[in-house]
Design brief:
11 strands; about 350 residues; 2 domains; alpha+beta; eleven-stranded antiparallel β-sheet; 7 helices; globular
Length: about 350
């Protein structure tokens, strides 16, 4: 197995609005908002808030097949739009669904030629977690943003609803109710974080924000790192500690300064980027897979810049959804029962943003 340090971190950025009059999205589409595009054999599901019981709004859809897997694989993230529920972990849900290529091919037909030929799950490049980046000579294409596939897919064939109470607990499997909130939809494009080396206008702006933050907090982000691994590091930290006491937030700001407009970070099996100190027992808090009982691993996280994109489709105003980052952990084995018609619920953890105004 390759070292985790060699796994690339992929950055998702907004790539324009997904106009349903011009594009028909499918489960192959990486997107913000809109209606979820379920795999052809998966029952449509309308999850509800674990706190207030209200229908959840669809926030993000990510097509993410795994290396050497015969399965198409999709993650859907939902959140409660209620003001009182904003920023709480219990008000978010993440559902993983899979189906074999043969199953998808046998239940769909394309009435119109797609804009781009969809990739089969087995055709993905070496890590197969890049959900949209094409393999070239160096395995990643040498840098730059790769637009995810904007594929015109066929309407899904609705599978019979099945009893999945043991897997999804209090999720409702009914069709979305009339009047359920739908967010404006945007395409997500991908760039390898290691390719973010050119200093553009956005990067200069990010550095300006970082300097303003350091001036306000009376510290330099770099000073924290200089004290690590050296004698007297703890004393150094105490002298330069930010007024709000959150050195992790400082590191968070420095890391995303390469691409402040990022809305999503993807690195299955990698290390999450916390925005504040996680609970001391966080590792134990990440529950085991509800299906196989196995461990879960970090896969992706949503970033603060996404908040401004979460607008109501009908009115255009921003929603009350606020968060700093949403961490998603999925079954390490990505277990799946052949022929299953229901999604599997995974684990997500929400951290609020200690300094939201920096991302406005």
């Amino acid at each position: 197995m390759a070292s985790r340090a060699q796994e690339p971190t992929l950055i998702g950025v907004c790539d324009g609005e997904l106009d349903p009059k011009r594009y028909q999205s499918s489960y192959l589409t990486n997107k913000v908002g809109g209606q979820p595009d379920w795999l052809p054999v998966i029952s449509r599901q309308s999850p509800r808030c674990g706190v207030c019981g209200a229908p959840l709004v669809h926030v993000v859809q990510v097509y993410c097949p795994l290396e050497s897997s015969p399965y198409h694989r999709v993650l859907h993230l939902f959140a409660c739009p209620g003001v009182e529920c904003s920023g709480k972990s219990g008000t978010w849900r993440v559902l993983r669904s899979q189906c074999l290529e043969a199953e998808a091919a046998g239940t769909t037909s394309l009435p119109n030629p797609p804009q781009e030929a969809p990739l089969a799950a087995t055709d993905w490049c070496e890590t197969a977690d890049d959900w949209g980046m094409e393999e070239e000579e160096d395995g990643w294409g040498g840098g730059g943003v790769k637009e995810v596939q904007k594929v015109v897919a066929a309407p899904e064939a609705q599978a019979p609803e099945v009893d999945v109470s043991n897997q999804l607990q209090d999720l409702s499997l009914s069709e979305p109710q009339e009047g359920t909130l739908v967010l404006r939809s945007f395409f997500i494009s991908v760039v390898d974080e290691s390719d973010l080396c050119e200093e553009d206008d956005d990067l200069r702006h990010a550095k300006k924000l970082l300097k303003e933050y350091e001036k306000r907090e009376g510290m330099a982000v770099g000073e924290l790192e200089e004290g690590e691994g050296q004698g007297g590091g703890e004393e150094k930290y105490e002298k330069t500690k930010a007024r709000h006491g959150d050195a992790i937030f400082s590191r968070f700001m420095k890391q995303i300064s390469l691409c402040p407009q990022q809305i999503l970070r993807y690195c299955r099996g990698g290390t999450p980027l916390f925005i504040s100190e996680p609970p001391a027992n966080f590792a134990q808090a990440v529950s085991a897979c509800s299906c196989c009982g196995g461990l879960r691993t970090f896969e992706l996280q949503l970033m603060p810049a996404l908040v401004s994109l979460l607008q109501k489709r009908d009115g255009g105003a921003e929603t009350d959804l606020e968060f700093g980052t949403v961490l998603v952990y999925t079954c390490t084995k990505s277990c799946w029962t052949a022929g299953s018609g229901s999604a599997v619920e995974e684990f997500c953890f929400v951290q609020s943003d200690p300094d939201q105004q920096l991302f406005k």
